[in-house]
Specification:
Structural class: mainly beta
Number of strands: 14
Strand content: over 45%
Largest sheet: 4 strands, antiparallel
Distance between the termini: 62 Å
Shape: flat
Helix content: under 10%
Length: about 170
């Protein structure tokens, strides 16, 4: 019975994380890619990753090269930074090929410290930082939300064919 009680002392140590000298595994991230329209081919770091919408789990933290392609639409590329343990959703709007020659809208690039989720009306634009999100030309009221902080409202003017940049601390 002594051997039995010595063996029973081992499982609680294993249940609390195993050997104390082992380095903890790095926290992995999740990347969710949503496109409008859906059904775009998603390529991550040069490898096919499925058709949007797609959730890519167990990703190593760091920079990710993302490309989405759909027949009849211009391909779109983004560099995305993933933090350890983060669940990041990237929403990309694909532009149709062969549309009007004059641009009807412009683009928004936003960076906040700390990160925030950005809304235009009830529509979620994405999580900062993001670059070149297409928006119609005109004035827009954006709401930047971060857990534990009050929402911040900013009004931006988007000009056709131009990129408007926002960078501020919440």
């Amino acid at each position: 019975t002594r051997a039995g009680s010595a063996a029973s002392a081992t499982p609680p140590r294993a249940a609390s994380g195993g050997a104390t000298d082992a380095a903890p595994a790095p926290a992995l991230a999740t990347l969710e890619v949503v496109t409008r329209p859906p059904g775009a081919r998603v390529v991550v770091d040069g490898a096919p990753a499925g058709t949007s919408p797609v959730v890519l789990r167990d990703r190593r933290p760091g920079k990710v090269a993302l490309v989405v392609q759909k027949d009849g639409h211009a391909p779109l590329a983004r560099a995305v930074d993933l933090a350890a343990g983060q669940h990041r959703t990237v929403e990309l709007v694909l532009e149709k090929k062969g549309g009007a020659t004059a641009p009807r809208g412009g683009f928004l690039t936003a960076r906040t410290q700390p990160y925030s989720v950005v809304f235009l009306g009830g529509r979620r634009l994405g999580e900062t930082p993001f670059a070149a999100v297409p928006l119609p030309a005109g004035r827009h009221v954006l709401v930047f939300k971060h857990p534990g902080r009050p929402p911040v409202t900013r009004t931006v003017t988007i000009r056709a064919g131009e990129t408007t940049k926002l960078a501020f601390e919440l």
